[in-house]
Amino acid sequence: MATQNKVKRRLKIKYRVRKKILGSDQKPRLCVFRSNKAIYAQLINDDKGVTVAAASSREKVFAEKKGTKSEMAKEVGKLLAEKAKEAGIETVVFDRNGYLYHGRVKSLADGAREGGLNF
Hints:
Nucleotidyltransferase, domain 5, 19% strand
C-alpha cells in the first residue's frame, strides 16, 4: 500500500513538472529514470518525439566497473554528455521525472555537467 502511494506521489510531481518543461532541437530534455538496481538517462526532442541519445548503468561499458549506485550514476552522466557532444548538443533541460534532486539523480546531473552539458 505504501509503495502505491509513493508511485502516485512521484507521478503527480512528474506531471506537474512536465507541464512546464519541453525539449527541442537546440535544448533536448534530459530525462532520468531510476530503478532499484540501475539508472537510465535520455536526451529527448519533444518536438519530433525522438530520443537523441541515451545512456544507462546497464551498458557493457559498466559491466566490470564496481562502485556505489551514486558513483555509477555519475559515470552514466559523463557518458551521456559524451554522446550528446557527438550529436552536437551542449545545452539541455533537466527533467528529474518526479524524483527528488538528491542522491543518484543529483550524481547523474553532476556527472553530465562535468562531461560538458549545460543546464
